Amino acid sequence: MAEIDFERRLERLFGEAPEAPDAQAFAERVERRLNRGWTARRWLIGAAGLAGGVIGASQLLMSNLFHRMETAEQSARALGQGLSRVTPATDMVSALSGGYGLWLAVGLAVITLGFVVSRMIEEI
Amino acid sequence: MKGPPQSSFASLHDVELCSYAAAGERRAFGELVRRHGSAVRHLLRRMGAQPAEADDTAQDAFLAAFERIAEFRGEGTFAGWVKRIAARQYLRRLQRQKRLSAFAAEGGEDEVPAASGDADGRIDLDEGLKTLSPGERLCVSMCYGAGLSHGEAADALNLPLGTVKSHVKRGLEKLRARLAPADDAVLEGKRGNG
């Protein structure tokens, strides 16, 4: 038998592996490990997103945001008063112009930053 | 990408399953493991791994393959690609356990046992591989089972190319002595029938 024929035969024999009796169980073990890794990754991404959001929000708060918000608040209040003369439906504007609005904005900023960081890490 | 239900993954081609897996569909990858897990584990055993060690290494290889699935371009077969990953993982494992040097050392001139004349080539191959020295077995399995070139095997084993070639040559001679008679018997049978 020529050398090349023998080598081909050898490759074919190597390719003919019998189906293991526990092939299904083996595949399930691999899938479980994949899922476990994925869950751990999601937790890590979530934690990273939350940390990023908190850091981002704290940076916003420390960058003289309160002062700027107060200025904006006064403007909004003046605007609200002006609008109240035009229409009685200004409850929402005045509610948002108070301290409640500030914390709502901060909360939204934390959630948005967390979401953006999570998406960016998942995409990477 | 949302994939089809689990049952329909079984009808998809490996390349399609790889596309789903690359999009993060783990059930599609599970189907690939179901199809090729046995072959990968069997190759590792043929390289000399114990059954439990072969299973662990095969699992690690499939996890590594899932991480790198985007690198698989479908140029060869998925099974061949995973086998190469698994072979390299096994070598790394041997290196970590400082067993590789003993495995890959030059083997002595072993006596080639007589051919068994086993009709089943697969069993014959498994038995034949047992008669090879660890280095010969590793090199032959890597080149003919995992599809690595002599150069790639030399790189992976961190051995000179000439050493790998001589391992392969001696290994082939021993296997040829063991496997060839079965072929002759088949040819004889064909002649007798014709």
Low-confidence stretches of chain B: 111-119, 183-194
Tell me, briefly, the overall form of chain A: rod-shaped
Low-confidence stretches of chain A: none
Largest sheet of chain A: none
Domains counted in the coordinates of chain B: how many?
2
What is the number of domains of chain A?
A: 2
Q: What do we call the CATH topology of the largest domain in chain B? A: Rna Polymerase Sigma Factor, Chain: A
Fourth CATH level, the homologous superfamily of the largest domain in chain B:
RNA polymerase sigma factor, region 2, helix turn helix motif
Structure classification of chain B? mainly alpha
Helix content of chain B: over 70%
Strand content of chain B: under 5%
Helix-strand pattern of chain B? HHHHHHHHHH
Number of helices of chain A: 4
Supply the number of helical segments of chain B.
10
Q: What distance lies between the first and last C-alpha atoms of chain B, to the nearest angstrom?
A: 57 Å
Q: What is the string of helix and strand elements of chain A?
A: HHHH
Average pLDDT of chain B works out at 82
* Biggest beta-sheet profile of chain B: none
Largest interface, Cβ cutoff 8 Å:
A-B, 27 and 35 residues
Approximate helicity band of chain A? over 70%
| Oligomeric state of shown chains | heterodimer
Task: Give a description of the structure.
The complex is a heterodimer of chains A (124) and B (194). Chain A is mainly α. Chain A has two domains: 24-63; 65-124, no CATH class. Chain A is built from four helices and no strands. In chain A, α2 runs antiparallel to α4 (99-123). The radius of gyration of chain A is 31 Å and the shape is rod-shaped. The mean pLDDT of chain A is 78. With 194 residues, chain B is mainly α. Chain B folds into two domains: 1-97, Orthogonal Bundle (Rna Polymerase Sigma Factor, Chain: A); 99-182, Arc Repressor Mutant, subunit A (Orthogonal Bundle), CATH 1.10.10.10. In chain B, 72% of the residues lie in helices and 0% in strands. Chain B contains ten helices and no strands. Chain B has helices at residues 6-9, 14-22, 26-47, 51-67, 78-96, 100-104, 121-130, 134-145, 150-157, 161-193. The longest helix of chain B has 33 residues, at 161-193. Chain B is elongated and about 50 Å long. Chains A and B meet through α1 and α2 of A and α3, α4, α7, α8 and α10 of B.
